[in-house]
């Protein structure tokens, strides 16, 4: 091992020992040696000690050693701030930054990206804006790494207006800058804005990286922008990029949500490594395409190859059964879920899916019996899909029952009142129509124009969207 210049033999021995730390007890022994040898202020030794503490989960133990130094080097502060930003105590980074100021240690251009990361993770806009002020005052704003970190802060906090404003004012923008802007818009559901930024990036001649492409693909998937998605796939092929788990899954998801599931299957089959998210994207895509039998086949294939299913997998395959009318298969899978085969109990969405499955198939009494068997209060979606099934199969009595449940759950929702009123009218219950409308007026409940006619259908859409 090549010794560090400027260090004593003993110091080099300590550094070599720190590189091979395996237990917390060794940290305490080394800490005593650092104090005895007065080496805690040496940056090379300090860095290795911090890394060693982090590797054995004792990063907090390193604080007293360095905070007692009269004026630690900025490198030591940066190392600690960065280390804590990757732990379960990211707030300690801000403590260290404050301690740094109290000790009159000026931060440098490396300090700010390190401190802005935990603030972004914590979505701490207030302290983030304070750091932004420090950056400007200290003349560090022109550093692109600092600028990108600030962009990420505002995007992480959902402040895309500030993020866009700062982005527009940047004299130079790299691939990271564009990716942060695209990702920020995608996370907020502003998929069109994300794709507009992606196109502008091409016009400016900035070459996207893998992270950019994954974010753009997710925006395509959620906005139905299949042409852009295909262009991205062609770009990936031309560049010869490997279809790793993240990129491959994003492509499968995009093709599935855009109605090109056959192409999604081809991508899936070319992937050498797949995660549970990849399998879920495939099954969900088949569910959306109403290819229930194929979705069930891939579900059982997933089990055969030893991939552990999760709650999203089960919801996807149950929705596939629902969309394709596979009542017996869906009930069989749900029964296995109830018996604990998959290691977790059915959740509210699984149960809502079963109500939808039974109601769509016309097994309305069975659906009501299932709802009544639940150990918790049925949800709005459950009553909504039951109502949709009852309406589709012409059962006005059960439609009235489900609509009343919706009114009870959301008495301020005018659309549900109007649905119930319309049902009374269809059934010739004019006295009930008059009474319900009188009740609406007395409570100040109003109809949302254009909503009541599709209210119960939207419950089914909401359930399908929950697997996306």
Q: What does this 3D model show about the protein?
A:
This protein has 27 helices and no strands. The longest helix is centred in the first third of the chain and has 14 residues, at 24-37. The protein is mostly helical and 468 residues long.
Outline the secondary-structure elements.
Blueprint: H1 9-18, H2 24-37, H3 43-55, H4 63-67, H5 74-85, H6 91-102, H7 111-121, H8 125-137, H9 144-156, H10 160-169, H11 175-187, H12 191-203, H13 210-223, H14 226-239, H15 245-257, H16 261-270, H17 276-288, H18 292-304, H19 311-324, H20 327-338, H21 348-360, H22 364-372, H23 380-392, H24 396-409, H25 414-426, H26 430-443, H27 455-465
Helix pairs in contact: 1-2, 1-3, 3-5, 5-6, 5-7, 6-7, 7-8, 7-9, 8-9, 9-10, 9-11, 10-11, 11-12, 11-13, 12-13, 13-14, 13-15, 15-16, 15-17, 16-17, 17-18, 17-19, 18-19, 19-20, 19-21, 20-21, 21-22, 21-23, 22-23, 23-24, 23-27, 24-25, 25-26
């Amino acid at each position: 091992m090549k010794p560090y210049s400027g260090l004593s033999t003993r110091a080099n021995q300590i550094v070599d020992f720190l590189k091979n730390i395996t237990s917390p007890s060794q940290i305490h022994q080394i800490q005593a040696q650092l104090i005895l040898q007065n080496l805690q202020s040496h940056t090379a030794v300090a860095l290795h000690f911090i890394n060693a503490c982090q590797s054995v989960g004792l990063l907090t133990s390193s604080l007293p050693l360095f905070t007692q130094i009269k004026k630690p080097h900025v490198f030591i502060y940066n190392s600690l701030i960065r280390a804590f930003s990757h732990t379960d105590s990211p707030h300690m980074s801000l403590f260290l930054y404050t301690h740094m100021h109290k000790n009159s240690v000026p931060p440098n251009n490396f300090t700010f990206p390190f401190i802005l990361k935990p603030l972004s993770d914590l979505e701490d806009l207030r302290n983030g804006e304070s750091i932004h002020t420090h950056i400007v005052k200290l003349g560090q704003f022109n550093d692109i790494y600092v600028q990108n970190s600030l962009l990420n802060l505002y995007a992480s906090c959902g402040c895309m207006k500030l993020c866009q404003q700062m982005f527009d004012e940047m004299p130079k923008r790299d691939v990271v800058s564009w990716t942060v802007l695209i990702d920020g818009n995608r996370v907020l559901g502003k998929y069109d804005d994300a794709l507009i930024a992606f196109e502008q990036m091409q016009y400016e001649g900035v070459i996207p990286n893998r992270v950019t492409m994954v974010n753009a693909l997710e925006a395509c998937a959620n906005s139905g922008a299949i042409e852009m998605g295909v262009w991205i796939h062609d770009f990936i092929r031309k560049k010869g990029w490997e279809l790793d788990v993240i990129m491959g899954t994003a492509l499968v998801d995009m093709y599935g949500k855009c109605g090109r599931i056959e192409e999604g299957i081809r991508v899936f089959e070319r992937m050498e490594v797949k995660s549970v998210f990849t399998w879920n994207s495939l099954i969900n895509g088949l569910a959306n395409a109403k290819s229930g039998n194929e979705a069930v086949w891939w579900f059982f294939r997933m089990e055969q190859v030893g991939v552990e299913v999760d709650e999203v997998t089960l919801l996807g395959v149950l929705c596939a059964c629902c969309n394709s009318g596979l009542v017996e298969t869906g009930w069989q899978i749900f029964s296995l879920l109830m018996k604990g085969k998959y290691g977790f109990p059915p959740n509210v969405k699984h149960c809502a899916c079963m109500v939808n499955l039974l109601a769509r198939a016309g097994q309305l009494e069975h659906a009501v019996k299932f709802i009544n068997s639940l150990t918790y209060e049925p949800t709005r979606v459950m009553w909504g899909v039951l109502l949709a099934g009852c309406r589709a199969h012409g059962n006005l009595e059960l439609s009235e029952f489900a609509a009343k449940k919706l009114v009870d759950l959301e008495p301020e929702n005018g659309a549900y009142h109007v649905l119930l009123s319309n049902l009374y009218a269809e059934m010739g219950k004019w006295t009930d129509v008059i009474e319900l409308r009188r009740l609406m007026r007395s409570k100040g409940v109003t109809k949302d124009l254009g909503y009541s006619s599709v209210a119960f259908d939207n419950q089914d859409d909401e359930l399908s969207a929950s697997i996306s």
